[in-house]
Amino acid sequence: MKSRIAGVCVELSGVILLLAVGACVSVPSGCKRLDERPKNAGKLSSSPAATPVPGTADKKVVCTNLELTEIFPLDTLPNRTVTLILSSNKLTELKNHSFIGQIYLERLDMKNNLIGNIETDAFWGLSALKRL
Ligand SMILES: *[C@@H]1O[C@H](CO)[C@@H](O)[C@H](O)[C@H]1NC(C)=O
Ligand SMILES: *[C@@H]1O[C@H](CO)[C@@H](O)[C@H](O)[C@H]1NC(C)=O
Prior knowledge:
This protein has one helix spanning 2-19, and strands spanning 32-35, 59-62, 81-85, 93-94, 107-109, 117-118. The chain is an alpha/beta fold and 132 residues long. The protein has a domain at 27-38 and 54-118. A four-stranded mixed β-sheet has the order 1-2-3-5, with no helix packed on it. The chain binds 2-acetamido-2-deoxy-beta-D-glucopyranose (2 copies). One 2-acetamido-2-deoxy-beta-D-glucopyranose (NAG) is lined by residues 96, 119-121.
């Protein structure tokens, strides 16, 4: 585990230098992280403990207009990221296994990119995907 995390930091160090960010960032700093609204928010809950346990809520990560040219290491996304918006960037290709391990991801938006090459196994591992 430790070595994998270190690897991510090394991989990102070029980006960090470019952005002059000192810390080892996980997701690009321009990304917004939001909690997804529970799908049953409209229903009245009789339980007083309706507040979700921190860290267990579904997450939405929005990375638009960041001029991203490739997908950052997605194992750094918050736990339970169900929505990932990568629209309006400059992604040019989707490599095999780009989304490996994203078992919670249900919605992936890559509109308005420059994608010209999608490798055969690019979406391998996206078991929960519903919308693309
Ligand atoms: C994500 O889940 C893993 C495994 O359940 C846990 O060890 C880790 O602390 C969690 N990370 C966050 C940011 O909640
Ligand atoms: C991607 O996966 C496909 C199918 O397994 C394989 O044919 C192709 O060579 C792979 N591409 C790369 C660049 O690894």
